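[step 3/7] fold_predict: job queued, chain A
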Amino acid sequence: MAPDGRQTLAGVALADGRVVDLQLDGSRIAAMPAAAGPARRLALPLPVDPHLHLDKTHTAGRAGRGAPGLFGAIEATRADKVHWTAADIRARAGRALAEAETAGMRGVRTHVDWEDAGEPRAWGVLGAMAREWRGRITIQRAALCPLDLIGDPALGPDIAVRVAECEDAVLGAFVYRNDALHDKLARVFALAERHALPLDFHVDEGLDPEARGIETIIELTARHGMAGRVLCGHACSLSVRPAPEAAAVLARAAEAGVGLCALPTTNTWLQDAAPGRTPRLRGIAPLHEARAAGVEVMLGADNVADPFYPYGAYDPLDVLRQAAWAAHLEPGAWIDAVTTTPARWLGLDAGTLEPGAPADFLLLPAPGWDEALRHPCISRRVFRAGHETSAPLTNALTDEAPL
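[step 4/7] structure written:
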């Protein structure tokens, strides 16, 4: 970098296929003229993860894996909650955020289990951490309530008030073949409208084709005029419904403005799981079909080092790598699913790389996306406001940088 803050990064490939010389002037991108030579490296906006569980993270070693499948993970986590003191939650979430920061993340949305009328301890801890991390990583919280709780006319309104009183908070629910599902979801939408809250659902997280909560969510989104404010995570059951049915649902989702967040690692790990049996089904929402229908699609890490997924990393490039093989994605065509699209859905600046924009980006030492994602430990340079802030990725086992 020159003393006046100007620098040029030559031969930079972008997600749209252009190869440019990236010219920086202090904290901004000054110009992006076409490069004279071939691509030498890749640049992408700083990533954003729209679907995490920072309250559960780094519990896999303590809680174990439980029985195979979603409900085994739920039970293992429930048993582990006896250890969830404020200090425990803070330490585990802090490890996760440190890893996310060194990976270049600039924003996350974390779901927080909210299982009864009282406010969960993790809600307050993560709220305090959101304030402490401001300016480094934007942290949003989504209240993950059972639909039977948040849809209860006696209990839901007070929870919604508490969520609405918090900065950067979102109302959510776990929806799976509930009794009186339409009535309960209608109450949730009414609460969201009353308090001007976005909604984020765990919906149809299973391989039962009769799990159709997403259809009610789409209907209510259109009725309440909440386009761009309702995000559906998982939607695994769409993967086992007849193609014409799934296509019709996705067309309605696009028209209503409902977003879709797929979680490739957790869903391939938990869905179609049984003892002593190799899984046949992947359980991933139909991403290609959703995008073709006009639905805005995102990818998230979901669970990292907990009973729902004992592996993983707080690195959207790793999420994209896993999605590439699991869902047959062309990585370069899906960079937006871990960068600009989730950024907009979290209410952040999209982070598009263009002249005049903040110089916030990742730089990878590879001429193309296949090469970049082929190496799980590829180095990266993280630029924030034009300054390189790169650091070795944190070792999740020891909290130390690798030797």
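[step 5/7] annotate
Residues 394-403 have pLDDT under 50 and may be disordered.
The domain at 6-45+352-388 is CATH 2.30.40.10 (Urease, subunit C; domain 1).
exit 0
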